[in-house]
Amino acid sequence: MMNLFSRLSELLDFGSNEPWEKGKDLDRVFAENEHNMDKDLMRVRHYAVAVVALERSLARELKLNRARAEFWSRKAREFRVAGKERLVQQALILKKELDEVVRRLEIETGAALRNRERVERTLHTVETWIVEVRRQQRSILARHRAALARSALHRGQALKRSDAHAVGRRLHHLLDELARFREELMVQAEADEDLQMPD
């Protein structure tokens, strides 16, 4: 039980640990956490069911033996009224034995009842903690995915800026080429005109 509480405490604290925010497959890690928490919760519930069953069984046995002790106490009174002293003594012996059983069962039932209450409180605490762990896991996953999206967006924006610079450079180079080609055409045209002029 202490191992379970220790693990739940670690899970509740891991949101503040830096390594969980960087380079971790949180979906896989949290899926494993969910699986382990479900197994732990199932074990606690099974234990709680067994404790409750024991307490109820002892309570029934206590009630039954109290009824038997009362029965032989009543029979002893009846035998005494009837003047059957031997039967009175036998009835009182049986009642005394049952009284011892009742006292033992009262102690055991009281302990079982306290244990049941403790286990039920523990189960409630575990269920509450697991709900909180799952809430924090969802919050951490949301923050982690948002961080990944921002990182991807920043990389995309950086890539777009880089692409824009590259395109700009190519355009400037093309414009320079076009300008030089235009100048060459103009020079060639002037040369052709000079060749076509009569002497």
Task: Report on the architecture of this protein.
- With 199 residues, the protein is mainly alpha-helical.
- It has one domain.
- 90% of the residues lie in helices and 0% in strands.
- It is built from 3 helices and no strands.
- Helix 1 runs parallel beside helix 3 and helix 2 runs antiparallel to helix 3.
- The chain is rod-shaped, with a radius of gyration of 44 Å.
- The relative contact order is 0.09.
- About 5% of the residues have low confidence.
What's the short story on this structure?
The protein is mainly alpha-helical.
| Major β-sheet annotation | none
**Helical residues, percent:** over 70%
Total count of domains: 1
Beta-strand content bin: under 5%
Main structural class: mainly alpha
Low-pLDDT runs of 5+ residues are 15-23
**How many DSSP H or I helices?**
3
Q: Determine the mean pLDDT.
A: 76
The arrangement of helices and strands along the chain is: HHH
Radius of gyration from the alpha-carbon trace, in angstroms: 44 Å
Ends apart, CA distance between termini: 115 Å
**Global outline:** rod-shaped
Task: Count the beta strands.
Answer: 0
